[in-house]
Every structure is written in C-alpha cells, then in structure tokens.
Amino acid sequence: MKALVTGAAGFIGSHLSERLIDSGATVTGLDCLTDYYPREIKERNMARLRRAPRFSLVEQPLAEADLDALLDGVTHVFHLAAQPGVRKSWGRDFRVYTANNVEATQILLEACAGKPIERLVYASSSSIYGDTAAMPMHEDARPQPVSPYGVTKLAAEQLCHLYHVTHRVPAVALRYFTVYGPRQRPDMAFARFFSAVRRGEPVTMFGDGRQTRDYTFVADAVSATMAAATRGTPGGVYNIGGGSRVELLNVFELIGQVTGRPLRIERLEAQRGDMHDTCADTTRARTDLAFAPTVTLDEGLRAQYEWMSAVHA
Ligand code: NAD
C-alpha cells in the first residue's frame, strides 16, 4: 500500500500513519500544522513517524499542494485534514471551516478523479446528525447538524458521495464518534479534564452533566479506518462508535477513579453547537468492516492519563 494521509500530524492522523507504517505501507503525510493548537504538540505526535524511513511529511496546506505529484502511485488516500472544534465554528471563524473542510475536500476529490486509487477514506463525524436523529443513530437518519462545524463535515461527506457517483472516486466516509486516547487534541473534553485535575483546578462542565457521548478509543477508530480502506463500500457511509455511551457525570466519576483525585466541578451553561446525546448504531460497520471495538472506556481513560502523565513528567 502506498498511502497519502492528510492531517497526518494530528491526533488521529498520526496514530493512523503509525499503523500504516507498521503494516508495511509507505506513507506520505500532508499537513500544514495549522495553529488551532500548538505546533509542538503536532511535532510530538509525529516523533516516531519522523524516524520511520517509509514516512515523509509534506508541510503544506492541501489547497496549495501539488496533488498530481503527491498522488502519483498512491493506492489509498486517507483524508483526515480538517479544522475541528464545534464551539469555534460560529461567527467569522466559519470561513476557516469552509476553507479547510469543504473547499480542501473538493480540491482533493477533483485531484483523485481519474487516478487509479483503490479507496479514499474520509473522516466524517457524528456531529452531522444533530439532535433530531433517533437513538441509536443509524446512517440513514436525516442529518441535521446543530453546529456550523457539523454542516461543513456533512457538506464534505456529500462531496465524497457526489465524486463517487460522477467521477468514480472510491470514497468511503466514516462518521467517528468522539475519539479519545493518547494525543487527544487539547481542546477536547477528556484532555481538558485530565489537565485540570493535574493542575488542581476545577473542571468546567457545560450544561447539566446529563448529556451522553459514545466514546471511541483511538486505536479502535484506526482499526476501522484501516478496514474501510480495503473493505468499505465505495460511496458508503459508516458509523464508528466505541459502544461506551456514558453520561458526562459518570465520566467525572471515572476520571476521579483513574487519577485518584476527586474532581471539583464548575458549572456553566450548555454551549451552542454541542449535541445533547450521541450513540452509534454500528451494525453496518460490524457487518462490512468486521468492526469490533476492543477498548473499554475505563481502559481507554487509563491509557490517556498514563500518556499525559508521561508527556508532562
Ligand atoms: P487534528 O486537528 O488533531 O488533526 C487535523 C490535522 O489536519 C491537523 O494536524 C491540521 O494541521 C491539519 N489540517 C487542517 N487543515 C488543513 C489543510 N487545509 N491542509 C493541510 N492540513 C490541514 O484533529 P483530529 O481530532 O485528529 O481529527 C481528524 C479528523 O477526524 C478531522 O477530519 C475531524 O473532523 C475528524 N473527526 C474527529 C473526531 C474526534 O473525536 N477527534 C470526531 C469526529 C470526526
């Protein structure tokens, strides 16, 4: 396999690139190391990759890269580059989201048209569902995002489908449900909770704490992504959820157990754009991709905390 991984310096992209290298693939990472969170963190994500002879990084924005050259001989494209984060996607920042999530995806799909690639796997998101889908969320539910971020992830997913139908780009979309584990982005909930606990500061809770999430350990998300590259139905969409749907208040309890420190909770109002609940129906991924999450929330939280403690030791 010769892979192009966009977003290779990021949380999920760096784990995926390592797995690809370990499985014998040659990997070109394309990432412009956006300043959404510090560059040093992304450099640290890539520390192992930088030493791998079959890995190379092209540090450029997707829209400026010579994609024809980068796609030469590539068998698989993994498109993870995006501007993440629900809460910042309102207001004038929205154009950062349309540029990095929608326009960049269209440019990549256009470049892939007519090339002999076997699959393009696109990292979509549970945020495309919004608050109206029945639980558990099925891929055929009507998408109705409640954040501008979700709208851009859905638009890019639709572009993947469109380019599959019109240009035969073998695109497969994976809707990841809240991915966590070592290297989780610093703006994400568990990363913020752990670092607050380590600093002895209160943990901020938005809303009443009764909201639920289906949490997916990063290694399980990567396994699903690898499987989609060979077994995913082109033009198809799959939910990727870890099967641990838990209330936020229970997460605080677990974090208290994992860290051995009681949490002080500071309550703030629910945030615009946050979904109340997510829960994946993973029947399709189980059937087509043999997806079977292996890491429980308790194990995954321990792994993330151990990693965080080692990094900040
Ligand atoms: P991340 O921010 O850690 O990684 C994204 C990477 O893409 C960053 O390193 C960034 O520098 C790069 N990037 C952004 N725009 C770019 C551009 N125009 N050109 C080149 N590089 C660019 O985020 P992550 O959490 O690893 O998410 C990876 C993907 O998975 C994203 O597409 C995200 O929308 C999706 N996703 C993530 C989650 C989650 O829980 N983390 C859930 C659902 C979907």
Short synopsis of the structure:
With 313 residues, this protein is of the alpha/beta class.
**Which structural class matches the secondary elements?**
alpha/beta
Share of residues in helices:
25-40%
Per DSSP, what share of the residues sits in E-state strands of 2 or more residues?
A: 15-25%
Mean pLDDT: 97
Give the uncertain stretches in residue-range form: none
Describe the largest sheet. Answer: 7 strands, parallel
Strand order of the largest sheet: 3-2-1-4-5-6-10
Cα distance spanning the termini: 37 Å
User: From the coordinates shown, what is the CATH architecture of the domain at 2-177 and 218-240 and 281-293?
Assistant: 3-Layer(aba) Sandwich
Helix/strand order, N-terminal first = EHEHHEHEHEHEEHEEHEEHEHH
Describe the structure.
The protein is an alpha/beta fold. The protein has a domain at 2-177 and 218-240 and 281-293: Rossmann fold (3-Layer(aba) Sandwich), CATH 3.40.50.720. 40% of the residues lie in helices and 18% in strands. It has eleven helices and twelve strands. The chain has helices at 11-22, 39-45, 47-50, 67-70, 94-112, 148-167, 189-199, 218-231, 248-259, 283-289, 297-311, and strands at 2-6, 26-30, 55-58, 76-79, 119-125, 171-176, 179-180, 203-206, 212-217, 237-240, 244-247, 265-268. The strands form three sheets. A seven-stranded parallel beta sheet has the order 3-2-1-4-5-6-10, sandwiched between helices. Helix 5 links the parallel strand 4 and strand 5 (119-125). Helix 1 (11-22) crosses helix 8 (218-231), helix 7 (189-199) packs across helix 11 and helix 9 crosses helix 11. The longest helix has 20 residues, at 148-167. The termini are far apart. 46% of the residues are buried. The model has no long low-confidence stretch (mean pLDDT 97). Nicotinamide-adenine-dinucleotide binds next to helix 1, helix 5 and strand 5.
